[in-house]
Design goal:
Blueprint (H helix, E strand, L loop, with lengths): L7 E5 L7 H11 L3 E6 L5 H10 L7 E4 L5 H14 L5 E4 L18 H22 L7 E7 L11 H21 L4 E8 L5 H4 L4 H11 L8 H12 L10 E4 L9
Parallel strand pairs: 1-2, 1-4, 2-3, 4-5, 5-6, 6-7
Helix pairs in contact: 1-8, 3-4, 4-5
Bound molecules: ligand 1JT.
Length: 258
């Protein structure tokens, strides 16, 4: 069993119980880590407090509001984290956004503002968070983000998110090089499609899930918990030699040609 007792993990991107971030937080907590959950808006405070209670971390864990598209909120969040915990060990970035039209219209019609927002929220936020977190990661540690195979291959409607995920994966490599000397590892998990809140706005998502069932070597879709388990591994000492990479949790879909 992986032991994360005495380790502090900060998790961004929790919207509800279906969130990939929720499953990751659950696995880290089960392994003994102390959690800090960062939610985007006050609307999500209750959900985060409920998760803390469900995980039996009332009194130890913290829930902090932080919109990752605002520098001052990232600084304020890490100032609060530093007050409660002098050292942190793991940071999970499970955040992405693009305006809905951009994931529906012809990619050719992608607007400058849609491109900007997708990259600001989904990519730049990782750099800003890594910079704010690094001074607290004095014992080294692990930063991870979530990506999707649409970074590398074209999928209908993934559009500007595919471009943003390509930039995110490159950002993981550059951050890994930048933070390696501090003993901080940076990795991405490429998750297969999952029906979360993010997928709700995607038309024909059921078709995407069916294609995975038909073609993936394991002939099924992944579950949030399976991403959580790999996230725990990446956070742990078992992954001490891994940095800058993309680890697939996709039932093998990405190895198939047709
Ligand atoms: C966003 C959305 C990022 C949906 C996302 C995402 N990363 C993965 N998904 C689910 C998905 C969507 C499509 C797909 C496969 C997976 C929506 C809001 C913006 C951020 O196509 C093959 C379209």
């Amino acid at each position: 069993m992986i032991d994360m007792k005495g380790k502090v993990a900060v998790v961004f991107g929790l919207a509800n119980k279906r969130s990939i971030a929720y499953a990751i937080a659950e696995k880290l907590s089960e392994a003994g880590a102390t959690l800090v959950l960062c939610y985007q808006s006050e609307r999500l405070r209750e959900e985060s407090e409920e998760l803390i209670e469900a995980l039996g971390q009332k009194g130890t864990a913290r829930a902090i509001q932080c919109d990752v598209s605002v520098d001052e909120q990232i600084d304020a969040a890490f100032a609060q984290i530093a007050e409660a915990f002098p050292v942190i060990h793991t940071v999970v970035h499970s955040v992405a956004f693009a305006p809905q039209d951009a994931l529906k219209n012809d990619f050719l019609m992608t607007k400058r503002e849609e491109f900007r927002i997708a990259h600001d929220v989904s990519v730049y936020s990782l750099i800003a968070i890594a910079r704010a977190a690094a001074p607290l990661m004095t014992e080294g540690g692990s930063i991870m983000t979530l990506t999707y195979y649409g970074s590398t291959k074209v999928f209908p409607n993934y559009n500007v998110m595919g471009v943003a995920k390509a930039a995110l994966e490159a950002t993981v490599r550059y951050l890994a090089a930048s933070l390696g000397s501090k003993g901080i590892r940076v990795n991405a998990i490429s998750a297969g499609p999952i029906k979360t809140l993010a997928a709700r706005g995607v038309s024909d998502f059921a078709t995407i899930l069916d294609a995975v069932t038909a073609r993936a070597p394991l002939h099924r879709n992944i579950e949030q918990q399976e991403v959580g388990k790999v996230a725990l591994f990446l956070a742990s000492d078992l992954a001490s030699g891994m940095t800058g990479g993309v680890t697939f949790v996709d039932c093998g879909f990405s190895i198939t040609g047709i």
